[in-house]
Design a protein that fits this description.
The protein has a two-stranded antiparallel ribbon. It has a two-stranded antiparallel ribbon with strand order 3-6. By secondary structure, it is an alpha+beta fold. It is globular. A hairpin with a 5-residue loop joins strand 4 and strand 5. The protein starts with 9 loop residues before the first helix and ends with a strand. The chain folds into 2 domains: 77 residues, Alpha-Beta Plaits, CATH 3.30.70; 63 residues, Alpha-Beta Plaits. The relative contact order is 0.16. The longest helix has 9 residues.
Amino acid sequence: MSRSTDDVDTSRRAFLRGTYFSHVGREGDKQKHLPLGPPPPWHQDKLDTDLCQDCDAPCLSACEPRIIKRYPDGHLLAGRPYLNFAESGCTFCGDCASACPMKLDYAGNPPKLGQVKLDIQSCLAWNDVFCISCRGHCDHGALSLDQRRRMHLDADACTGCGRCLPVCPNKALSFHQCRSK
């Protein structure tokens, strides 16, 4: 009896060939453990994988900028919500918290989601090109120009909302998540 190529278990074959033990295989496995983004505001340190997996995720539809996504199956954090800053940033409106069945308290100042870092080597403003793309999207006053028209980031004023990230034409801004306590 001959087997068709459709019956071949490629994941097992890759393991037996040592793909998992290769650099590419290890990097793929490592990606399953890295956070894709911060949790939604007011959800930090409160998310429970079991509760989130069984949830209908009303936070996803409540988010007007549509930046709340769920970790995919196969990821260590599968089912949990995270913020994806690919197209927009967080407005700290609180709609995700009010829609969450965990009854989160979102009164008071919004939490700091993380820290945006500025790579001056990649920043157009630091390379003699007038650029203020990111500055117009920062509602917290964390980005400013000096007298030589170079961009500066005030780490204390940055909330990590991510609104500046998708508009940077050179990807000179990057997001670094706050460590959980």
